[in-house]
């Protein structure tokens, strides 16, 4: 099929919108936005193309679909959503920025400040995104020292009867037990919001006014508290962040390309404070540094959280004169400070890219060694590993971890709660998890692995062989046994149909890869088992104790500020609660501990 551009282009509207380049098999080749759809789409069908990548894409186009929207901003958002959902072949795709951390200020009567990661909603005020968890936690600690906002969960806050340790170390004003008036707490919340928005000078100015007013009113204790707040702010601002001379908000985005790979490094400056940076690598697509930078800013800032100024190392090529990001300016560094920040971002991008390339080379070497050692027909792109974890048969959990294209793929990990078996029967647990996982593969659902590792000896591997036969699957299987004296590096690799286990030795790169995957499966299984065991023991709560009815349960929870407080209480503490005898207190303490 051939595309008749001359006949099609006059029908394209001159409105803002999104266009989709479609291929012969109705697949989406490319998604783009435009302030003027006709002018932008027409540019693809000129005699000369901006890059070989675009020329190759245009040669495959058989249809162009367009969607008109009301504004350029709406086009940007729609383009971003379509790229992430359709994953077009010729778009450069970066990972979703939902993994960025935020600071959350809840809408409760006494708002709570907390760490948050995910999609922001309207249930609270969110500040960010910030480049890493360190920046969030450092800022929350600063707010605790300066404004004494609560960080506890509502379940704890609503059941406290006395101040917690954070109040005693001057990190919380204890609104849970009314040790601060609501008006005063609200003022601290307002100052916190100003501070988190980067208006540090205004916050300190307001606190100074409050301190002077308190001193004039002879409220010297309150004036001293505000003075301590100002000191805490100034001390931490000077100590923990790289400051600029002005309270300014900007981002630094740099892109580099080397050996067929690229890295985009994103640094944030909020209120004049450099909050750190974060390296990004395209999950799909490739292009020049300018292409990478343009793809990143359009995807990352689609939610509308872009600062007015973004400093870049290479100006992205505008599409027919359109601004790459409505409402923001992308430009080179304009002064010495911005040039220094750009240099730092470039250096960190170089380090991140070098590390990634070295890791890729090391992974390729390990995979080649694995293919040779196990005599595999193909080099595996996807390896899955299974492990079972329990304590004397209690809270049995199975884990499945995934190694894919040179790295562990956390988003593909799965845990399975094992039920309906004899406690401690590892063979039955392995049979259940393998059946549940690979029934989907047998039915044509889910990803098919190139190699399956079973943490265990001949017995566990035998179960895996039986399951695969029952499901009609032919997947390469390898059992990973501990070996003599369970020494690291003495692992035995057991293969179907091969009598003698394979011992590679501690220096073999293939064993390094297998051990890395096996250890991750073990860690993931243990973490799931411990969580399940803890949850089971937590659910063995007051309701399960004979003699504890609704009234006594409420008195216990109120007295000790929740179940954790009851669990930490001594028998003597429990006896002091009205209606709790010593015998009942001993029973409560024994069952909860």
Question: What topology emerges from the helices and strands here?
Answer:
Blueprint: H1 5-8, E1 17-22, E2 28-34, H2 37-43, H3 52-58, E3 63-68, H4 72-86, E4 101-106, E5 113-117, E6 124-127, H5 133-147, H6 154-157, H7 165-168, H8 182-196, H9 200-216, H10 220-240, E7 242-243, E8 250-258, E9 261-270, E10 273-280, H11 289-300, E11 309-312, E12 329-331, H12 336-374, E13 382-391, E14 394-404, E15 407-408, E16 414-417, H13 426-442, E17 451-455, H14 458-471, E18 477-481, E19 492-494, H15 509-539, H16 550-560, H17 563-568, H18 571-575, H19 582-592
Helix pairs in contact: 5-10, 8-9, 9-10, 12-15, 13-14
Task: Briefly say what this structure is.
This protein has 593 residues and is of the alpha+beta class.
Task: Give keywords.
593 residues, alpha+beta, seven-stranded mixed beta sheet, six-stranded mixed beta sheet, 19% strand, flat
Notes on the structure:
With 593 residues, the protein is an alpha+beta fold. Helix content is 43%, strand content 19%. The chain has helices spanning 5-8, 37-43, 52-58, 72-86, 133-147, 154-157, 165-168, 182-196, 200-216, 220-240, 289-300, 336-374, 426-442, 458-471, 509-539, 550-560, 563-568, 571-575, 582-592; strands at 17-22, 28-34, 63-68, 101-106, 113-117, 124-127, 242-243, 250-258, 261-270, 273-280, 309-312, 329-331, 382-391, 394-404, 407-408, 414-417, 451-455, 477-481, 492-494. Helix 5 (133-147) packs antiparallel against helix 10 (220-240) and helix 13 (426-442) packs parallel to helix 14 (458-471). The chain is flat.
């Amino acid at each position: 099929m051939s595309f008749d551009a001359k006949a099609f282009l006059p029908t394209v509207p001159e409105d803002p919108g999104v266009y989709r380049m479609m291929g012969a098999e109705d697949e989406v080749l490319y998604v783009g936005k435009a302030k003027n759809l006709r002018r932008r789409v027409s540019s693809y069908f000129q005699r000369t193309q901006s890059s070989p990548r675009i020329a190759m894409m245009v040669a495959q186009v058989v249809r162009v679909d367009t969607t008109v929207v009301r504004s350029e901003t709406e086009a940007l958002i729609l383009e971003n959503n379509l790229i992430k959902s359709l994953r077009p072949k010729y778009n450069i795709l970066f990972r979703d920025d939902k993994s960025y951390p935020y600071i959350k200020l809840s809408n409760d009567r006494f708002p709570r400040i907390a760490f948050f990661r995910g999609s922001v909603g309207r249930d609270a005020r969110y500040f960010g995104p910030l480049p890493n968890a360190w920046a969030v936690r450092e800022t929350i600690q600063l707010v605790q020292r300066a404004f004494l906002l609560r960080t506890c969960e509502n379940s704890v806050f609503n059941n406290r009867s006395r101040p917690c340790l954070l109040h005693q170390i001057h990190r919380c004003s204890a609104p849970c037990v009314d040790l601060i008036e609501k008006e005063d707490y609200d003022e601290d919340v307002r100052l916190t919001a100003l501070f988190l928005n980067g208006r540090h000078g205004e916050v300190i100015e307001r606190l100074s006014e409050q301190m002077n007013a308190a001193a004039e009113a002879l409220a010297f204790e309150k004036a001293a508290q505000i003075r301590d707040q100002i000191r805490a702010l100034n001390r931490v601002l000077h100590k923990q962040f790289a400051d600029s001379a002005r309270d300014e908000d900007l981002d630094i985005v740099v892109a580099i390309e080397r050996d067929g790979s690229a890295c985009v490094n994103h640094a944030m400056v909020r209120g004049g404070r450099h909050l750190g940076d974060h390296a990004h690598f395209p999950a799909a697509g490739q292009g020049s540094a300018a292409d990478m930078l343009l793809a990143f800013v359009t995807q990352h800032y689609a939610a509308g959280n872009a600062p007015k100024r973004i400093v870049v190392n290479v100006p992205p090529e505008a599409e027919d004169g359109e601004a790459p990001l409505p409402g923001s300016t992308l430009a080179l560094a304009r002064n010495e400070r911005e040039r220094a920040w750009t240099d730092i971002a470039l250096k960190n991008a170089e380090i991140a890219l070098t590390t990634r390339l070295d890791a890729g080379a090391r992974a390729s070497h390990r995979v080649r060694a694995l293919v040779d050692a196990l005599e595999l027909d193909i080099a595996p792109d996807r390896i899955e590993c299974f492990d079972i974890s329990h304590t004397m048969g209690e809270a049995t959990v199975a884990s499945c971890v995934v190694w894919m294209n040179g790295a562990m793929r956390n988003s593909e990990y799965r845990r399975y709660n094992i039920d309906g078996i004899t406690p401690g029967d590892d063979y039955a647990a392995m049979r259940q998890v393998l059946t549940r996982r690979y029934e989907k593969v047998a039915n044509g659902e889910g990803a098919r692995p190139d190699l399956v590792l079973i943490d265990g000896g001949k017995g566990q591997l035998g179960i895996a062989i039986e399951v695969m036969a029952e499901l009609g699957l032919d997947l390469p299987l390898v059992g990973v046994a501990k070996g003599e004296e369970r020494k690291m590096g003495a692992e035995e690799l057991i293969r179907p149909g091969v009598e003698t286990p394979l011992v590679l030795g501690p220096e073999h790169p293939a064993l390094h890869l297998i051990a890395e995957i096996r250890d991750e499966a073990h860690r993931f299984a243990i973490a799931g088992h411990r969580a399940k065991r803890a949850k089971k023991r937590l659910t063995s709560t007051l309701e399960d104790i004979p003699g504890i009815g609704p009234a006594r349960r409420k008195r216990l929870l109120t007295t000790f500020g929740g179940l954790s407080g009851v669990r930490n209480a001594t028998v003597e503490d429990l006896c002091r609660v009205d209606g709790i005898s010593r015998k009942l207190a001993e029973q409560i303490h024994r069952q909860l501990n």
